[in-house]
Amino acid sequence: MLLLAVLTGGAGARATPQGVQVIPKPVTVTAGRGWFSASSAVVSVASATPETRRIAADVAGLLGGRVGPGGNVMLALGGPARLGDEGYDLAVTSRAITLAARKPTGLFHGVQTLRQLLPATGARRIPALTIRDYPRFAWRGAMLDVARHFFPVRDVKRFIDLIALYKLNRLHLHLSDDQGWRIAIRSWPRLATHGGSTEVGGGRGGYYTQRQYASIVAYARSLYVEVVPEIDMPGHVHAALSSYPKLACDGKPSPLYTGIDVGFSSLCVDKQLTYAFVDDVVEELAALTPGPWFHIGGDEAAATKPRDYLRFIGRIQRIVEQHGKHVIGWEEIGRARLGPDTLVQHWNLDPAKTALSRRAAEQGARVIMSPAAKTYLDMKYDSSTTLGLRWAGYTSVRDAYVWDPVRQVPGVGARDVIGVEAPLWSETTRSLADVEYLAFPRLIGIAEVGWSPARGRSWAEYRLRLAVQGPRLAALGVNFYRSPEVPWR
Length: 489
Ligand code: IFG
Description:
Layout: H1 2-7, E1 28-37, E2 42-45, H2 50-63, E3 66-67, E4 73-77, E5 88-92, E6 97-101, H3 104-117, E7 125-133, E8 139-145, H4 153-165, E9 170-174, E10 176-177, E11 180-181, H5 190-193, H6 210-222, E12 226-233, H7 238-243, H8 272-287, E13 293-297, H9 306-322, E14 326-330, E15 343-346, H10 351-362, E16 366-369, H11 372-375, E17 417-424, H12 432-439, H13 442-451, H14 459-475
Parallel strand pairs: 2-3, 2-4, 4-6, 8-9, 8-17, 9-12, 12-13, 13-14, 14-15, 15-16, 16-17
Antiparallel strand pairs: 1-7, 5-6, 5-7, 10-11
Helix pairs in contact: 2-3, 4-6, 8-9
The structure holds ligand IFG.
């Protein structure tokens, strides 16, 4: 037993049976005997609702079987409180599969595990085992910057498909910035028609109609991903000012901007019009967003006087709350007095700025960890990476995996951290292929950081499991970076 304990990374750790290479690593995996042959699968659901029936149909599709009564694959709602809303119990024997969870979300996550227990190619069979699994953090997200470069609906839905495979449950859409405004607002139509008409490098840009945005939100929800919209304020607003010069303090018209500088634009804090504008935008976007959060940005407001920044952030928090949403902001909003249930997003390298996450936590806010040196997917992998930036340093596949969210910012500990999120800023990514190259495989490791227990996680063990994802990503046509750090299968 001692030898086994040593081999499996610590006394009492359960052996991960050979061949179980799931990412995120489940909380407990116990090997069984034999294999379940998927060819004879009939999937039944004990607590039939439209939602659980849809999941049953997904499982039938996955196993190449059919849905029917009295089957050998049983889905059921129920289970111990320990599973929470997102966890599941999975049992596979040579004769049957049972998957139980307290909520459909948990069943969905169990299905993602089943997907990975089936080989990418070859015999449709699953090793007998039992798994009890549930996430360490509630917030496990990715951010797509659709403002610097615009990505059409089909690209966003493809990105959602991929993040859902790894049990991520939040998609933060960075919908506005200096270079583009990407969501139609009926009461301020030029925001999209003018503000969305170009992008970094001068391309044709684009924007989502409200119907298209609603379809992205609905699609994400069908994969148990909640969309978080961001309208970045008071900085990062040049596209809005170019669309409506009266929003600028000097009221002067300005051409659209297609470069990649930051920190040069600001809404006019002194004008009442500014708050009417914010109220109209938040009202329309909040009505299209069933999720409880609205991200107000708040980063890099170098063109806003500090005193004005505090006043502005104070006022727009109330506007967001009046429209029934909880505020999220980049950690700079920690300078202001924060309302209840606020989330702040840590990203900076500079300790003077990361201290703002601590100040926010001291006010009761919870922190989404997006440390730039670990999670910024637009950072180059290494000097050979043509895409991406490097202001936060090179970020290898290993760098994106070997970190703990509760040990990043002094004074921001386990009780303050709600989870993790990996931003992909699109200054240098012009296509979905570019996005996939920078996001994969680093986003897979960040998904494990957000889901799996800290104890027992190690790069030496993880990189072998990641290697097995290679054929799966290839089969899905994902343009992932075959990092030399990983012994790809
Ligand atoms: N910082 C800016 C982003 C983007 C990024 C690129 C934040 C919160 C650098 N703000 O990250 O708009 O330009 O890596």
